[in-house]
Write a sequence for this structure.
């Protein structure tokens, strides 16, 4: 079967979200100009650059314009990416509910906030890794708005570090597949890279 995008009817969402898997999940906290703390998952997410340290996530526009997260980032220039691990998976899913902008997903999902160090939005207290970011750039790509953020401060819980370094073997991260399917990162294997 081949899909010619030029003649394909409807959205490519199903194909793209099922073919590009598993995707890491940026659980993004922001604060509105009025001081309401927002939290939402975004799995169109990756590292864009290491030097400078830039991460990027891609909110698809809502029918009535920008989703709360990109709107808050545009307004305040700050956000935090929290790591989703297995014990936080259900709470993460709850924060994907479409809530009014004046209602905080932290409270909706019963999540504790922890203060950030260099940005105003709080981080998820139970997240083992959190990246405090300032806005690097916003790029319009058709019906999506790419958010690029520069990482300014990294929180690492002691449970995921070995000798002071982040140890991926201790990171019980959850990845998004498509629809309601997710993957754990528990089934690991190692391969040495060729020289
Ligand atoms: C695991 C997961 C990943 C998601 N990834 C994206 C994404 O990459 N882009 C997007 O626009 N929406 C994504 N969503 C949907 C948003 O989380 C949802 O629209 C949310 O209400 C947006 O919240 P906000 O308006 O507070 O930013 C995802 C939902 C889930 C559960």
């Amino acid at each position: 079967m081949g899909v010619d995008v030029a003649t394909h009817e409807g959205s490519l969402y199903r194909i793209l979200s099922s073919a590009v898997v598993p995707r890491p999940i940026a659980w993004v906290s922001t604060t509105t100009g009025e001081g309401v703390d927002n939290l939402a998952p975004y799995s169109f997410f990756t590292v864009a650059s290491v030097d400078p340290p830039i991460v990027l996530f891609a909110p698809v526009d809502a029918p009535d314009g920008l989703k709360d997260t990109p709107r808050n980032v545009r307004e305040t220039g700050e956000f935090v990416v929290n790591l989703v691990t297995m014990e936080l998976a259900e709470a993460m899913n709850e924060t994907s509910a479409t809530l009014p902008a004046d209602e905080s997903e932290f409270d909706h999902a019963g999540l504790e906030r922890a203060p950030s160090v260099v940005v105003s939005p709080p981080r998820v207290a139970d997240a083992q890794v959190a990246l405090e970011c300032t806005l690097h750039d916003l790029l319009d790509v058709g019906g999506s708005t790419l958010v690029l953020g520069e990482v300014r401060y990294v929180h690492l819980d002691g449970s995921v570090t070995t000798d002071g370094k982040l140890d991926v073997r201790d990171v019980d991260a959850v990845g998004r597949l498509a629809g309601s399917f997710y993957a754990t990162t528990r089934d690991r294997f190692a391969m040495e890279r060729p020289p």
